[in-house]
Design goal:
Layout (H helix, E strand, L loop, with lengths): L1 H8 L4 E3 L6 H9 L9 H9 L6 E5 L2 E9 L7 E9 L8 H10 L9 E7 L3 H14 L3 E7 L12 E6 L13
Parallel strand pairs: 4-5
Antiparallel strand pairs: 1-2, 2-3, 3-4, 5-7, 6-7
Length: about 180
């Protein structure tokens, strides 16, 4: 019985597409991560249903421990915009965030994706490390420029967001993103 408990404790999270009934678990995971902007539960329900093809869940023993929300911007079928990545305490340090990105990019629905985009504030070291690691793993270029200004777009209430673009890349380059 002890060996079974150890095996479960060291298990890798299962990464999969979300379902609508995952919405509350996603909402709670994000809520438990103070550094993330909180969305409404309804927003997370829509992400888990309407945008399931561009979002991913990581589960460990039936518990949601990771989340990636993304979408393909209108008129830009070659781009996946990553809105939010969240990994709970139980799964940190295991490459879950990178695996979530790899899961979405590896789907048939993502065959035409050649660019990965997101926004990151200057002081978000964890996100810079993640997306730098993603670019290196794919052997792709990373570019950055201010996209949303603190003063112009956030009325002084939020730090400026840097627009980050990784790519172009080919489908074969995403193999390094698997956990």
């Amino acid at each position: 019985m002890i060996a079974l408990a150890v095996a479960r404790e060291n298990a890798s999270p299962l990464v999969r597409a979300p379902r609508a009934d995952d919405g509350p678990s996603v909402w709670r995971l994000i809520d438990s991560t103070p550094s993330l902007d909180r969305n409404s539960l309804y927003c997370n329900l829509l992400q888990c249903s309407h945008f399931a093809q561009t979002c991913a869940i990581a589960e460990l023993n039936g518990e949601v421990v990771g989340w990636l929300s993304g979408y393909v911007p209108p008129g830009r079928d070659d781009t996946l915009f990553v809105w939010q990545v969240c990994v709970g305490r139980k799964a940190r340090g295991q490459g879950v965030a990178k695996a979530l990105i790899g899961e979405v990019l590896g789907r048939d629905a993502s065959r035409g994706i050649r660019y990965l985009e997101c926004t990151i504030t200057e002081d978000n070291a964890a996100s810079w490390a993640l997306f730098g690691s993603v670019a290196r793993a794919m052997g792709a270029q990373i570019q950055r420029s201010e996209l949303f200004s603190r003063d112009t777009h956030f009325d002084g209430t939020h730090d400026s967001e840097m627009g980050v673009t990784i790519g172009p890349f080919e489908r074969g380059q995403i193999a390094g993103l698997k956990a």
